[in-house]
Amino acid sequence: MARPEQVLVLEPQHELKFRGPFTDVVTATLKLTNPTDRNVCFKVKTTAPRRYCVRPNSGIIDAGTSINVSVMLQPFDYDPNEKSKHKFMVQSMLAPYDMTDMEGVWKEAKPEELMDSKLRCTFEMPLENDKTHESESNKTVSSSTSSVKTEHPALPKSASASLDDGEVKKIMEECKRLQMEVQRLREENKQIREDDGLRKRKVMSMVTPHSSAMATSAVRDEGLSTRVLALCMLFFVIGVIIGKLLL
């Protein structure tokens, strides 16, 4: 007795195309549609089960719905002179209304209840033009990515520039404060020298010439130390400013 005609609609109907390169897994999609008002059980079989991974390879398609079956070809050494002999078969049957065990239904199914459709497999390598197009696309993507990478680090630079401006502002304020401090030290030094002048004159009138020379030397050393301290502070501030600007 002839088998009934397949009720499922297959897309594609007769051929599964796998497009290389085949150095990685290549996937083809098989769409199964159930246009009937009954649930349909299905199975997907192949003549080369070690070369393919099928998900899902069996199941139930509800009435008026469809599913996509992924057929994954495993990597292999492609030979353009070798024709593919791999085939797939989609087997189906109307699901019983009281079905509880799908495996049991398949085992108990009668031959006249089974429907099947066969598909052959073809392998294709990309044409040279396609390779060139893909290469140009990859270059475009790469250049776009590099431009994004180039533009992205510019943000931290602007942020660091604003930070440098803030630091410079703080340094300038500190410089002004230190300059005022130096000016104050100069005034104090001037006052000290004036006071020392008065003491010097008093000492000159009260001590021997030798003691007068010692007092004069002490006064000069004190005034010199104050000026050296003020100049060191000023040079330190200028050095800090120059270092910050160079960074």
TrEMBL record:
Pfam families the record matches: Motile_Sperm (PF00635)
Coiled coil spans: 168-195
Primary location: endoplasmic reticulum
Domain named MSP: residues: 7-124
Compositionally biased residues, Low complexity: 138-148
Keywords attached to this entry: Acetylation, Coiled coil, Endoplasmic reticulum, Isopeptide bond, Membrane, Phosphoprotein, Transmembrane, Transmembrane helix, Ubl conjugation, Unfolded protein response
KW Endoplasmic reticulum (keyword) present: yes
GO cellular component: endoplasmic reticulum membrane; plasma membrane
Comp. bias intervals (Basic and acidic residues): 128-137
GO term, biological process aspect, one: endoplasmic reticulum-plasma membrane tethering
InterPro entries: Ig-like_fold, MSP_dom, PapD-like_sf, VAP
Record-linked Gene3D superfamilies: Immunoglobulins
Membrane-topology annotation of the record: Single-pass type IV membrane protein
Signal peptide stretch: none
Region (Disordered) residue spans: 128-163
Keyword Phosphoprotein: yes
Residues passing through the membrane, by range: 228-246
Location relative to the cell: Endoplasmic reticulum membrane
Role summary: Endoplasmic reticulum (ER)-anchored protein that mediates the formation of contact sites between the ER and endosomes via interaction with FFAT motif-containing proteins such as STARD3 or WDR44. Interacts with STARD3 in a FFAT motif phosphorylation dependent manner. Via interaction with WDR44 participates in neosynthesized protein export. Participates in the endoplasmic reticulum unfolded protein response (UPR) by inducing ERN1/IRE1 activity. Involved in cellular calcium homeostasis regulation.
PANTHER family: VESICLE-ASSOCIATED MEMBRANE PROTEIN-ASSOCIATED PROTEIN, VESICLE-ASSOCIATED MEMBRANE PROTEIN-ASSOCIATED PROTEIN B_C
Family membership: Belongs to the VAMP-associated protein (VAP) (TC 9.B.17) family.
Protein name per UniProt: VAMP associated protein B and C
Organism: Seriola lalandi dorsalis
